[in-house]
Structures are given as structure tokens and as C-alpha cells.
Design goal:
heterodimer; A: alpha/beta; five-stranded parallel β-sheet; four-stranded parallel β-sheet; 16 helices; 9 strands; 12% strand; globular; B: alpha/beta; eight-stranded mixed β-sheet
């Protein structure tokens, strides 16, 4: 799903590589200083280690359409690269010239605050020229088709298009019809790969690993792209996933994705290292998935009491936006185990890494 | 006196129990004579017995079958001629080996009365390359409220009634329709779908829809409706034909109903026989894998193949549903349901089932010609002496690639583009006239 092999073999890959900013000449500028943290092998600029294959690893695909099909080493590469970029956001001047001269279109066909802002900040911190394009301000509301919109965007020669769309598969559609690199910022109920990556980044920062962790994902499984991307990523990285929702919000045959499925929240929370809550949209009540927000909270809301079933050092996550008092109690959301705001912070670093790697960057260059 | 000699082919005519090398002499649009082929004899041997000026269609190595009947086609005329027309749809039919097609009433306006039925019949007479048999509405405007003027339509040529595209959801109306159609001896063809269960769905509900995050259409949406229809058929003893049956559960219900002696028949499409919901994932959300009923799971597909073998399935019908490229080139959930099938139906069934020995050539001809003709009450489906000279000639060895650019249809919405298939229709004869021929060198 992720690796578009047809396009990968096209001339575009070469063009991208050719357009890559010269790493050698602007070492200081291109490398986020002190990017490597204590857990990774610190590479001093003055004494560069011999380059290894591993250090020079680049992303194999032209697009980030989803987590499905992405190999463990690619995920690790993105997370390692994100760690290098995280430091940039702590500086007083939060900017590196890495993507100077690149044009990135943020094409958001669905309302989004967090993800769009996060991408925009990531682009700006990489010195790319970012264009925000959303339906309120566009001709899409005048009945223009996605294909025509895509062709018009393409005519402006963007290097990348970040797309958020209500239809599952819309980024794949764009990838078929555009030369630009496509980044899926959420498509329908399908995938939200950068969310899963920032979740994984956050878990790794807090737990030091992904493999072997028990991750409970609780909430509206049916309509959640965050769920699907997280399952693909976490299973690839060797975590155990238990998914929990009322049966009315559980997609059929979910267990075939390699996860444990239950409608008993206590069972899901038992022994969890990570508890990931998913948003419950109140509109789902109208479609009959549950009788009231009150009853949902009583049965599935994450309270301090319930959270005690998780491991004592468990972290609490939520992709936002939260419905306090529906899927999560404020005492948990704002409590000591909550990493919800870390997720937002890490989102910027992860998206910087994705943009950088898709533009043809390598981790080796960053470390030079 | 126009005459045509179809020479030296393997005549497969289950209606007369024939499977033999025969010469067929066609005079004035009817089968005039059948006689053993004499491969050794040249033109001089024939001259004494065939009328002067007889055209000869060499069919050696080919299968000569009673003209194929596609009983489920959307011609889109009147009203949606940018998708298809009577003229282009019938040309597609001729190219695909069909000599007769039945067209569904969901046009604009719906074919729910005399005027549209007569228009289609007249247009087919003017421009049609093959026989066109209109299917009229069950209800006025396909709205499922009141019966349409079925008597008027039957009198002007309608061979069945259906609100296809829409199920007949109101079981009271369904009962009335199954009773009322008895007067005219025509079947009620139902698109079985419980719209409460299928609402919002874009593909089959199962593992693949879960993986792709697309809203599913459960198998039960069809099965609930099939069960309801069969109960009403039992009640009324009317004639029910289940359109594009797609699930194992539906098939089992029809099988059981047939055992109980109900007057029920069913059809299946080639795409439900050769593709599954996995095609949606494999094609990265290609809207040409979106149709209704949706491509089902592998277990369903295997059950349908078994139904093809054991006779539970009466007919193969394409559900030829043309859509303009602009309409299909959209987000998956926004794109309309449906694919075209007239020009791929025969080679798909030949390649995947007949050549593989899953069904015999005679069973194939039953599914493509004998049974659909019988269900619709057409005097077709045989090559007996005196029958209409509608003939489908197939080269069982010919291998070609499906190329949508070559289609006669106005539309291109096929998931089979680029497929290499073996066993193609090479000549189509309607009322003794050659309306399509793949290789010009085959006649002299």
C-alpha cells in the first residue's frame, strides 16, 4: 500500500535525488546541532564516523500513503530522524534550511487544527514554502473534482502535497495522478500514518522501545484511521495490541489484523503499558452505535479508577481532539501519566522527518 | 432471398441435444437446414444444395452456439446518453457475442410506461445492432409506491419487470407485483438489497473493508432481501428472478427454494465469479472495482462457482453499467457503482471456467443463451431448424488482451483492462445478418 513501486522506478526518484540540497557544503546549517540525544550514538561533527549503509539509509518510497506495508527499518529510520529534528524546536531560532526552495501544499479537505498546524510548523522549520489550501477557500466547494483540483495543484509544481480527505483512498488517487510526493494526513477511516508515527515516537521516548509492549487502543474503532495506522505500525514493530470498543463500533474481522479484540474495557486495560484513547464523535449516537454520551462514559470512559488496571507506569495517550467526560475523564487527561501534549510536540519533529526523508534526505547526511 | 452458410463449426445446441460438427444453412433469417459438415468437400460440393449467392462463414475450429442473451444490461437511453445509447450498447453487445439483450428501466425518465418502452423498441429497430428487449418498471418511477402500467409495457414489448438499481423494498407492493405479472406471464426481476443494512457502504463488508477503512455492505443486506422475496414468491406462487446474486447465503436460499418447487431463477455476473473484494485493495481503491452488489469474499465466489456447476445459477448476466470516465475518476466512496461487461463477459467465462473444465461447453451455452431466453420467454436459445438465426460463434483458442480503448461501448469503466483471456466471440449473427466479425479473413 505504501510503496508505490511503479512510481519508484520512474525518473522522479532520480530527479528528487538530484534536487537534494548539497549536504557536504552546508553541514552546519543542515544538521540540527546536537540532534542526536543521549540514547543514540552521538556523532560529533568534528570526528565523523565512517559512513555505513545503515547511517545512509533513505526512505524507499516516494509517498507516505499509510503505515501498511512499511518495513520495520523504515519506521525506525523515520523515528531516528525525528529524534534528530526534535532538537530544532527547542532552539530560540527554530529553523533549518533543509528544504529551502521546496514548495509544499497542505491540501486539507476536512477540518483539522492539530495536524494542519503541525505540518505547517514542520514545513516552516525546514524552510520550505508552505501553501495552505482548504475547501472553504477553494473551488472544491464550487464542484471541482478531486482530479481537477489535483491537476491544478500539480500545475504549480509543488514538491509535496500533504492531503487530508474524508474519502479513504484519496491520497492514493492523488498519487496516481500527480508527480509530487504525497503525504497522507488522514484519509477517511483508512490511515493517518504521521499520527501513528508520532504516537510511536512518543511511546519510544517514554518507554525506550516498542517491541513487547502491550498497547490498549480504546474508543471508536470503526471510524478511526488512527487505529488502523497504529495497528499496522505497532504490529510491525513487535508490540501487542488490544483493541476495545462496543461491538457497534468495532469493524468486522478486526482480529485478522493481528490484534486482540474485546468489548470489555477492564480486560483491555489489564497490564497495558500504553493506553491510547480514541475520540468518540457524538454524531455516532445518532447512527445508533450507543444510546447516549452518558452511557458511553459509564461503560467506556477512561476514569482514574479504571486506569488503575493498567501497569503502574502506563502512559495515557489521545490523538485529539478530546471529548472530556465522554471517552476520557479530565483527571486522567491532565494527570501525571498523560503524554497527550507530548504527542502534539512530537508531531512536529516526526513530520519534519517525514518531509525531509521523502524529499530524498538520508539519516547519514543529517549526521554529517 | 438472403442466405448464409455457417460452415464446419462445432454446433453446441443443448436445446436439441446437439454437439456435433455441422453446417448450418440460414435462409431469410431462420435456420433452414443442419447437416453434417463435410470437411473434404469444396465449394463445388456445396453448389448443388445451397441457394445461389449464399455467403459462407467459415467456422472450422469454432463453436457455433445459439445467440447469447444478456438479460441484464443498462443502455442508459433515454436520458443518459453520455454513458451509453441503444446504438452503442447494442454494438458492444454484438462485439461481445450477444445477439439479444434485455435493458433495465432505470433510465431518465424511468421506463415505467408505454412511451419509454415504445421509444426503446423503436430506437432499437432504427439503430440497434442486436435484439433489444426492454424490462419495464415494477413501480411508477421506480419509487416503490404504486404499480407501473405493466400491462401497457408488456403489450409494447417489455419481457420482464424490475426496479433494478432499487430493490422492491415494500413487501406489500412486491406481493401485488408478483400476483399482477401472472397476467402477462413475465418474471419479476429483483435487485435484492436491504437499504437499511447497506446504507453508506462502498464495498463488501469484511476483512478488506476493515483494512481499507471503507464502509461495508454486509452479505446480509442481500440475503435479508432474498429471503423476503422468496417468502413472497412462496405466498404468491409468482415468478421471481434474482438479479446479480452475489453471496453464498443468497445462493443457498435460492437452491433451497428451487428444491421446494418455487418458480425462482437467478443470475450471476462474470465479475462476481472472477474477482473478490481483495481487488479493491490490490488496485489501491480503483473505482472500477466498485459495483453493487459489491465484489464479495472468496468463500462467496467459490459458492457461486459451485452454483454455476450444479445448476442453481440459471444465467450469467453482465449487469453492464456504463459510467462516464469523469464520473468514475473520483474518490472511491464518491464514484458511482457499476462496471461495463458486454465485451468481456464471454471471454471471462470461457477463460476461467469453460477452458478450465469447471463447466462444460453445453452448460456454458445454457447459462449464456438457453436459460436467459427461457426466463424472459424469448423464442431464442436454440439452433433448431426454423429457429431465429441468431448465432454466436466462438474461437475457443483465440487469446487476446482486453483493451478498453477498443470497446464499442461509450464507456470504459472495466476492471479487466489488460487481462489476457483465451476464448473469444469472433462472429455474431442476428437474424441471419453478420453484425460483428473479429477477423475479416473469415468470410468469403
Amino acid at each position: 500500500m505504501l510503496v508505490d513501486t511503479k512510481l519508484q522506478t520512474s525518473g522522479r526518484k532520480t530527479a528528487t535525488a538530484g534536487a537534494r540540497p548539497s549536504a557536504r557544503r552546508s553541514t552546519a546549517a543542515r544538521r540540527p546541532e546536537g540532534a542526536a540525544d543521549a540514547q543514540s550514538a552521538r556523532v560529533e561533527a568534528a570526528t565523523p564516523e565512517p559512513k555505513t549503509e545503515k547511517r545512509l539509509i533513505a526512505l524507499k518510497q516516494n509517498h507516505l500513503l499509510g503505515m501498511q506495508g512499511l518495513a520495520a527499518e523504515e519506521i525506525t529510520l523515520i523515528l531516528d530522524t525525528a529524534r534528530s529534528f526534535a532538537e530544532v524546536s527547542t532552539r530560540s531560532i527554530k529553523k533549518v534550511p533543509t528544504l529551502r526552495g521546496r514548495t509544499i501544499v497542505n491540501f486539507f479537505m476536512e477540518p483539522s487544527t492539530r495536524t494542519r498546524s503541525s505540518f505547517e510548523i514542520a514545513e516552516k522549520r525546514l524552510s520550505a514554502d508552505a501553501l495552505n489550501f482548504s475547501p472553504g477557500a477553494s473551488s472544491v466547494v464550487k464542484g471541482e473534482s478531486l482530479l481537477d483540483t489535483a491537476r491544478n495543484l500539480e500545475a504549480m509544481a509543488p514538491d509535496m502535497i500533504v492531503i487530508r480527505h474524508k474519502s479513504s483512498g484519496a491520497p492514493h488517487f492523488l498519487a496516481r495522478h500527480c508527480r509530487a510526493h504525497i503525504i497522507n494526513a488522514g484519509d477517511g477511516w483508512h490511515e493517518h500514518p504521521t499520527q501513528a508515527l508520532l504516537d510511536a515516537f512518543t511511546i519510544r521516548e517514554k518507554k525506550g522501545k516498542l517491541k513487547g509492549l502491550r498497547v490498549a487502543i480504546i474508543g471508536d474503532l470503526m471510524h478511526s484511521r488512527v487505529l488502523r495506522s497504529n495497528i499496522f505500525l505497532l504490529k510491525t514493530m513487535g508490540a501487542d495490541v488490544v483493541a476495545c470498543a462496543p461491538p457497534t463500533l468495532t469493524p468486522v474481522e478486526l482480529s485478522r489484523l493481528g490484534v486482540q479484540v474485546t468489548w470489555r474495557i477492564d480486560e483491555a486495560l489489564e497490564g497495558a503499558d500504553v493506553v491510547m484513547m480514541l475520540r468518540i464523535q457524538r454524531e455516532r449516537q445518532k447512527s445508533g452505535a450507543f444510546p447516549s454520551a452518558r452511557e458511553y462514559y459509564n461503560l467506556y470512559g477512561l476514569t482514574v479508577e479504571r486506569a488503575r488496571r493498567a501497569r503502574t507506569d502506563a502512559i495515557i495517550m489521545h490523538p485529539g481532539p478530546m471529548n472530556r467526560g465522554v471517552e476520557i475523564d479530565s483527571a486522567v487527561a491532565d494527570g501525571p501519566y498523560s503524554v497527550i501534549l507530548d504527542q502534539v510536540t512530537n508531531g512536529v519533529a516526526v513530520r519534519m522527518a517525514v518531509l525531509y526523508l521523502l524529499a530524498g534526505g538520508t539519516l547519514g547526511e543529517l549526521a554529517d | 432471398m438472403a442466405s448464409l452458410l455457417i460452415k464446419g463449426g462445432r454446433v453446441i445446441d443443448p436445446a436439441t441435444g446437439t454437439d456435433a460438427l455441422l453446417d448450418l444453412l440460414v435462409v431469410d433469417g431462420r435456420i433452414a437446414e443442419r447437416r453434417p459438415a463435410r470437411p473434404g468437400k469444396g465449394a463445388s460440393g456445396e453448389r448443388g444444395v445451397v441457394p445461389a449467392g449464399t455467403k459462407v462463414l467459415e467456422a472450422a475450429g469454432h463453436w457455433v452456439c445459439p445467440g447469447f442473451v444478456d438479460m441484464h444490461v443498462h443502455l442508459r437511453e433515454p436520458g443518459q446518453e453520455h454513458k451509453e445509447s441503444v446504438e452503442t450498447g447494442t454494438r458492444a453487445a454484438a462485439a461481445g457475442g450477444f445477439t439479444s439483450i434485455a435493458c433495465m428501466p432505470n433510465t431518465e425518465p424511468w421506463n415505467d410506461g408505454l412511451s419509454v418502452t415504445e421509444y426503446i423498441v423503436a430506437e432499437a429497430r432504427r439503430k440497434g445492432a442486436v435484439n433489444v428487449f426492454p424490462i419495464g418498471c415494477v413501480s411508477k418511477g421506480g419509487r416503490g409506491e404504486e404499480l407501473a402500467e405493466i400491462g401497457d409495457m408488456a403489450r409494447s414489448g417489455a419481457v420482464a419487470v424490475s426496479d433494478d438499481g432499487q430493490p422492491v423494498a415494500n413487501t406489500y407492493l412486491l406481493r401485488m407485483a408478483m400476483e399482477y405479472t401472472k397476467i402477462f406471464g413475465i418474471p419479476l426481476i429483483d435487485h435484492c438489497e436491504d437499504r437499511d443494512l447497506s446504507a453508506g457502504g462502498a464495498m463488501h463488508e469484511g476483512y478488506v473493508s476493515t483494512m481499507l477503512g471503507l464502509q461495508g455492505i454486509p452479505a446480509a443486506a442481500e440475503e435479508v432481501a432474498v429471503a423476503a422475496d422468496l417468502a413472497v414468491a412462496q405466498l404468491t406462487q409468482g415468478r421471481l428472478h434474482v438479479a446479480h446474486l452475489s453471496t453464498r447465503g443468497s445462493l443457498e436460499k435460492v437452491r433451497q427454494a428451487k428444491r421446494e418447487g418455487l418458480r425462482v431463477t437467478c443470475e450471476v455476473t462474470p465479475h462476481h465469479l472472477v474477482l473478490t473484494d481483495q481487488a479493491v485493495a490490490d488496485s489501491d481503491f480503483d473505482p472500477n472495482t466498485k459495483m453493487n452488489p459489491p465484489l464479495r469474499g472468496e468463500q462467496d465466489r467459490q459458492a457461486l462457482i459451485e452454483g454455476l456447476r450444479d445448476g442453481t445459477i440459471d444465467a450469467v448476466a453482465s449487469d453492464h453499467a456504463p459510467h462516464h470516465t469523469d464520473e468514475k475518476l473520483q474518490e472511491f466512496d464518491e464514484a458511482p457503482f457499476g462496471i461495463i461487461g458486454l465485451e468481456t463477459s464471454v471471454p471471462l467465462i470461457m477463460d476461467r471456467f469453460v477452458r478450465q473444465g469447471v463447466i462444460t461447453p453445453a452448460r456454458f451455452v445454457e447459462l449464456m443463451s438457453v436459460n436467459p431466453a427461457r426466463i424472459l420467454g424469448l423464442r431464442k436459445g436454440t439452433l433448431a431448424v426454423g429457429a431465429d438465426a441468431d448465432v454466436t460463434i466462438i474461437d475457443p483458442e483465440l487469446e487476446r488482451k482486453v483493451d478498453v480503448a477498443q470497446f464499442r461501448s461509450k464507456s470504459r469503466n472495466s476492471p479487466f483492462h489488460g487481462w489476457a483471456l483465451r476464448g473469444w466471440p469472433v462472429a455474431t449473427v442476428v437474424a441471419g445478418q453478420l453484425v460483428h466479425e473479429l477477423r475479416a479473413a473469415a468470410t468469403r
